[in-house]
## 1
Amino acid sequence: MLNNMTNIAELSQNSFKHRHLLGIDGLSRGDAYVIMELAKNYIVKNRQPDKKHAILKGRTLINLFFENSTRTRTSFELAGKRLGADVINMSVATSATKKGETLIDTAMTLNAMHPDFIAVRHPESGAVQLLAQKVNCSVINGGDGCHEHPTQALLDALTIYQRKGKIEGLTIAICGDILHSRVARSNIKLLNLLGAKVRIIAPPTLMPACPESLGAEVFFDMRKGLKDCDIIMMLRLQLERMTGNFIPSVREFFHFYGLDEEKLSYAKPDALIMHPGPINRGVEIDTRLADDLNRSVILDQVEMGVAVRQAVLELLANK
């Protein structure tokens, strides 16, 4: 099996036929490497003084975010503008949806304006899929409910590849609120596709039903789950999605499942720490570890996010 990203990407360079990016399901291993290989070029370009290109000149990207976002919405905006697109950020708080307009009516209204791309974040799982069925342009899932967040998984995979030189064979632990995390679901799918060994670690109350069906090894003990891991991916508590008491207290959660120096010592000495953000310091991760540039790649993830979204926009523009 080929392990070199460039070689795998070359095999699939002309086979990326997707009109939308709604989830990891449907992507092949080659598709993922095509996106990451193209994103690698944008990493270099984004570090230059002149970051602008005309690849999407004359195209329009609408950011339609029904949930608050800083990293994802801003990185889509930067990605579109750096490629020369006109970018519209819709204010959902003052949009017609607050006046009773349905998602389908919103989709039909936007479709009549002839955008080329719509990046969507929505609190309901499946909403992005529904919207994609009603428009003529490409739709990119910026996160739907507890379902998926495909560009986050792709930027996480690229971050790992850039720092470790491979993904296949690595042991990667995803820790925290697995139950409510679309990031966890997309990452489990993608990392399995790319040959990693995936573990999930959480208290029973924050594990989905039948967690083994997700395709990851399940741990309820943080230290056992982190044993000899190469990558530790921490997740925040999704308090906005919780209806009930899922943890006794934030202090107790950090004691058992928050990443600190002692728990980190169970992983490999060169294990890297990841977090999709925003970080709740002292809840899921100790501040000192979050800021340790020798171990933490959290800021790398932010940089990779812009590059991956540029790559996705370019690939979808050619369909």
## 2
Amino acid sequence: MYAIFKHGGKQYKVSEGDFVNLDHFAAEKKSSVEISEVLAVVGDAVVVGAPFVEGAKVVLEVVNEGKDKKVITFKKRRRKDSKVKRGFRRQYTRVKVTKILG
């Protein structure tokens, strides 16, 4: 059984027991979070919402928070002799899927 849910403008496909890095949100460690914006639930039958499945929830447990690896962007213009080097580290909240209620 798996579900597709929406969080932070992105869609995630998860099963029970999966670990997912979501965009950072304020939550205590080991706390439980319910997401009701479920787009589809696939088990014995396929249930697709319009836009969300009514009554379906994904229950998540917060594991920790952190930062991803640094992504470096480098821009160089050949004739103008200008270079720009920038780095970016995305902050995330790591969660574990405990239940899919469909």
## 3
Amino acid sequence: MPKQESIISIQDLSVGFGDKIINKNLNLDVYRGEILGVVGASGTGKSVLLRTIIGLIPKRAGTIKVFDQDFAALNDNQRRSIECRWGILFQQGALFSSLTVKQNIQLPMREHLNMSEHLMDDLAILKIEMVGLKPDAAGKFPSELSGGMIKRAALARALALDPEIVFLDEPTSGLDPISAGEFDQLIATLQKTLGLTVFMVTHDLDSLRNVCDRIAALGDGKVLETGTMEKMMQSDHPWLKAYFHDARADTRVNTRVPV
């Protein structure tokens, strides 16, 4: 079996706030073309890890390599070049409320690309349709969208620059089961169609089962286990046994809030 290519490689990562250490000597590889689900109890540093990888939170120690480059060692221009190769969907979508969907999607284009308004308009509509929204969503403001539409619009913005990596922070939180299932399927379809690598922070067992190629479980400041859902189910680690085998696991996937 050929060796998998690590598109993100994290070694001995430590992150903290004040006296509190969130991640300590954490090691993790994300392989090109996979959907990696990152799971863990509240406060285990799932979102902190994502934000540290993309440079929003400073690390205290360790190395983060993206595309085989040490992100911390790059200059500003080199960092911007790397950032153009990833897209991010934050938990609540993080759309700018004063901008339309089209304008939100065009923000990365305006920042990083040099193209005409006409071409940006065409590309924005393409991204809108790509995530399953109707073209008339382009002129709507976030306040006019449902929760599911906000997630899709935010995903369209994450795809604006045709990234190789997409970071998703709790992408199905706040969605009803049907909408969440449809969003999972959208992620899987886009991953296959576009050849994306997906780093997905989630607590959603349905997402872990249905779309993730591999799972990384966080706890005690580090990665407790990595592998397929089958491997997680077979683990003897107390937290993994409780999370994946507890009687409430069957209901945990249905705790999404209707929109």
